[in-house]
Each structure stands twice: as C-alpha cells, then as structure tokens.
Amino acid sequence: MSSGWPLVGNRVNHYRLAMAETKLDVEHLFTLALEVGDTSNGVIRNGPTGTRYIAPVTGGTFSGPRVSGTVVAPAGDWVHARPNRTVHLDVRLQLVTDDGEAILMTYQGIGVPQGDGILSIRSAPTFETGAEGYAWLNDVQAVGIGTSDGRSVTYEVYGLD
Fold first, then answer.
1. Domain 24-160: CATH architecture, name and number where available
2. pLDDT over threshold 90, residue 8
3. Which candidate, 7, 31, 105, 151, has a CA 20 to 30 Å from the CA of 137?
4. Cβ count near 36 (within 10 Å)
C-alpha cells in the first residue's frame, strides 16, 4: 500500500522519505526595529524550567515594500531563559501602519547567544488584522531573522511563499 510519499531505498524495511527541499521561496515583508524597556521589574527567577523575563517593547518601526509604520504599546516579550543559555521568545506586538491600520504580530522564536554578546534570533511571526488593505497578512506564515543587544532588536521578516 502506497502512502503517496516519495521513497528512497532498496530494502523493504529500510525505506526513507526523499530529502525535502533545502531552500524556501520567500518575500521580504519588512525590516523591524524594536526598542526594549527595563526588564528589572519583570523577573521570575528559578521557575521550574528556568528564569522568565517580561521585557516591555517600548516602541519601534517596520518598513517594507507593502507595509510600513510604527510599533506601539501594548507590546512585549515573555522571555524564557533556559539553563543552556538559549532563550525562548513569546512576543506580542501592535503594529500601526503609516495609514493608521492596526495589525497584531505574534511570534515565538529561539535566541542563541554569540561570543560578542549579541543574541542571534530566529522567529516564526503570524499576523492578525481586520484592515481590508492588509488582510493578505492574515494568511502569511513568516520567518524572522534577527539580532538583539538587550536594548534593541532588529529583524528581517520574510513571508513564506
């Protein structure tokens, strides 16, 4: 019985799925620059899986070929610092376009510290809006590639085709 999946191999019990594509087609959505506020009042130490930091996002901008604007409050990141020094991000941002429309951007991601103190970040944003002109974002799964120095975060955000 065939599963419909392409198979590789010549032994009945030793089949593997064929290798998936290694490159993805993407569309650059925007560059996102965030300002991070003081986290000292939002620290939950020694939780069952590490330390949690609640980092307020105090503002920012986003700029791209189809959508641009500012990041406004409320916005923040519920960072989980893991014992291995990586961080898990859980972010909610309110984007306001240059023409005044509101878009909710949410994402989770992983940050890995680099030797120079910079955090390398990979994230998976999604969007929610009722604005007709930006409704196309409701069906976009995006990827974000970014860095943080602890006071600011910058991402290049791409939509998967």
1. Beta Barrel (2.40)
2. no
3. 151
4. 21
